[in-house]
Design a protein that fits this description.
The protein is of the alpha+beta class and 293 residues long. The chain is built from eight helices and ten strands. The strands form three sheets. A four-stranded antiparallel beta sheet has the order 1-6-7-5, with no helix packed on it. Strands 2-3-4-8 form a four-stranded antiparallel beta sheet, with helices on one face. It holds the Pfam family Fapy_DNA_glyco.
Length: 293
């Protein structure tokens, strides 16, 4: 799943390509992807792209339909678990047949360039919204603070975690608490902090909070830096190369050399290092038994 660093990479890439261009084409071929009807998707045609922004894991293309350049319409997209953006310097002219292509949405610009939003697999969760204000998107409206925003201090993190008797892994992934972190980077942050994914948020000490905050900022900052300047086609591989534990089950921990282990859930897994994070204890597979604490 694309998370905040990769989405920021997409935002930076699009900002360098499409600001100032006019939208010449919008084709919806994955009809379940379009979540809004007012304004209609055709309202984007002819609009000039004014800016690109990120809200958590959402990409926000802001445009102006009038000549005064005032932003009055947004195309907001969430790539979900298996979605991606495929850029074309010259947009293909082939007709996309609904239901027979991974392409859910195609957007073209007046210089001939454009992009496709694609989604692999049968579970379709990619979402696109045409709105007058990004806050009209429910997922954007409920977002917590961005962890790389200057206002997100160590004390702000402490306030968010205070009294939460839930596992820190789940807290980091909850978009209404902290925006932009998903399964992969929560694994990476907790490994960098040498913290069990099942530590209860409310029980973290002041020292734990210091370490977690530093690990969060450093991990995400490094990942955003790595994503900066890369075209969409290279972002996924860059993400994989930067992982210390996530997706590396059975490989050696780069810190201590112990085998990286997994815990499996219904539709995903987490990875961790027993030596670095759980005092050598193994966490039981959730599919088979209760967690070891």
């Amino acid at each position: 799943m694309p998370e905040m660093p990769e989405v920021q990479g997409l935002v930076d890439f699009l900002s360098s390509r499409i600001i100032g261009l006019r939208i010449s084409r919008v084709s919806v071929t994955g009809f379940s992807a379009l979540k809004t009807y007012d304004p209609p998707v055709d309202a984007l045609k002819g609009a000039a792209v004014v800016g690109i922004d990120r809200h958590g894991k959402f990409v926000d293309i802001a445009a102006a339909t009038s000549e005064d350049g005032a932003v009055d319409i947004h195309l907001v997209c969430h790539l979900a678990k298996a979605g991606w953006l495929r850029w074309h310097d010259t947009l293909p002219t082939t007709v996309i047949k609904p239901g027979r292509s991974p392409i859910a949405l195609r957007v073209g610009f007046d210089d001939g360039s454009g992009f496709d939003l694609t989604e692999a697999g049968t579970k379709k969760s990619l979402a696109a919204y045409v709105v007058r204000d990004p806050a009209d998107v429910p997922g954007v409206a409920r977002l917590g603070p961005d962890p790389l925003d200057p206002s997100f201090t160590r004390d702000a993190l402490a306030d968010l975690l205070a009294g939460r008797r839930t596992q820190i892994k789940g807290v980091l992934r909850d978009q209404s608490i902290i925006a932009g972190i998903g399964n992969a980077y929560s694994d990476e942050i907790l490994h960098a902090a040498r913290m069990s994914p099942y530590a209860l948020a409310a029980t973290l000490t002041d020292t734990d909070l210091d370490v977690l905050y530093a690990a969060m900022r450093e991990t995400l900052t490094d990942a955003v830096t790595e994503a900066t300047g890369k075209p969409p086609a290279e972002l996924k591989d860059a993400k994989r190369r930067g992982m210390a534990v996530h997706g590396r089950r059975g490989q050696a921990c780069p810190v201590c050399g112990d085998d990286i282990r997994s815990v499996f859930f219904a539709d995903n897994s987490l990875e961790y290092c027993p030596t670095c994070q759980t005092g050598g204890k193994l966490l039981a597979d959730r599919r088979l038994s209760r967690l070891l604490k």
